[in-house]
Write a structure and sequence with these properties.
116 residues, alpha+beta, three-stranded antiparallel sheet, disordered C terminus
Length: 116
Amino acid sequence: MKELPLVECCTPISGPALSPSDAAELERLFKALADRHRLQILNCLLQAGEESVCVCEFQPLLGVKQPTVSHHLKQLVEAGLLERERRGTYAYYRLKPGVLDRIGALLAEPALLPAA
């Protein structure tokens, strides 16, 4: 009986993989963003640039009651996406500096290694 040569089923994965801590960070961020209201908040803050936006601006934008707005903002702050600043009786929110760059870096394709 003739033996057939052993054939590998696939090409081995090469290059650096996403670390468990980076994967956990992305999971936390994606969970925070997996809601249409939180995406609208993020979009509003992106349009505001570096300016902070008062909590009172989000209720008419989202069409939900203030406690719901506060819940969504809390989720985004806890995920590390937003910063909160108290001014008198109002809270103002803005994107945390560098957060979008961090997300981009976590999702970026690894640099190609030079040929040996």
